[in-house]
Design brief:
This protein is α+β, with helices and mostly antiparallel strands. The protein folds into two domains: about 1-70, Signal transduction histidine kinase, dimerisation/phosphotransfer (DHp) domain (Helix Hairpins, Orthogonal Bundle); about 75-230, Histidine kinase-like ATPase, C-terminal domain (Heat Shock Protein 90, 2-Layer Sandwich). The chain has helices at about 1-35, 40-70, 70-75, 85-90, 95-100, 120-135, 200-210; strands spanning about 80, 105, 115, 140-150, 155-160, 210-220, 220-230. The strands form two sheets. Strands 2-4-5-7-6 form a five-stranded mixed β-sheet. Strands 1-3 form a two-stranded antiparallel sheet. α4 packs across α6 and α6 runs antiparallel to α7. The longest helix is centred in the first third of the chain and has 33 residues, at about 1-35. It is globular.
């Protein structure tokens, strides 16, 4: 147990220390790219590639920090929230990315459902699932976010028409650092990549809210994540 706690403390400290230098590097490259008319195409391409790598490292750093603070999540203040309102709040933040990728992001089917949750953690869980769906859905596809009440349960669904997940990978997608090889469909994720931690965090948050999370997927047809919470 002490070894695990030491590992968590190290991960938290290392992640925290990495945030500032990564932010400095990202800001510096963004400043250079704003004046890209003065750069050669080769230099601009290298800077853009470096920026993408820094952004990926930043995501991993935040995910590591979040996982290392796993105990803190359960001690967050729980409050009464409307799952539909939280899902809408998170989904709206992805509207620009979906538009940029040529994806239809639909979050119109949201029924108000009161529940008790640690709102920051709930937002993080929904963010990770929606982001995963958008990253692996090609242009022309669709991502739907739905909320409804079933009996005394609050249900969140995120369904996409993306690449799908091979059956052999389904049992492992909530494992830390597990990445499904979905590169076979060129251009679907536009070079974007995750940390391999996003869905692990989603599962952790679901568990801490006594929620069930599962996934169904068909390769080349799409994937549906379903999270079922106890409703208030």
């Amino acid at each position: 147990k002490k070894a695990l706690e030491s590992q968590q403390a190290f991960s938290a400290e290392a992640s925290h220390e990495l945030r500032t230098p990564l932010a400095v590097m990202r800001n510096g490259i963004e400043v250079l790219l704003r004046g890209k008319e003065n750069l050669s195409p080769e230099t601009a391409a290298v800077l853009k590639s470096n920026l993408e790598e820094i952004q990926a490292m930043s995501v991993m750093t935040e995910d590591l920090l979040h996982l290392s603070r796993g105990k803190a999540i359960s001690s967050d203040k729980y409050e009464k929230v409307d799952l539909a309102a939280v899902a809408k709040f998170v989904s709206e933040k992805f509207s620009a990315l979906a538009l940029q990728k040529g994806i239809k992001l639909d979050f119109s089917d949201l029924q108000a459902v009161p529940m008790s949750a640690a709102r920051p953690a709930l937002e993080r869980m929904i963010k990770n699932i929606v982001q995963n769906a958008i990253v692996y859905t090609p242009s022309g596809g669709r991502v739907s976010v739905r909320v409804r009440q079933e009996n005394k349960l609050a249900v969140l669904e995120v369904e996409d028409t993306g690449l799908g997940i091979p059956e052999k990978d389904l049992p492992h997608i909530f494992d830390r650092f597990y990445k499904v090889d979905r590169s076979r469909s060129a251009g679907a994720n536009d070079g974007q990549t995750g940390s391999g931690l996003g869905l692990a965090i989603a599962k952790q948050i679901a568990d801490q809210h006594n929620a069930m999370i599962d996934v169904k997927s068909v390769v080349n047809h799409g994937t549906k994540f379903r999270v079922v919470f106890p409703a208030s």
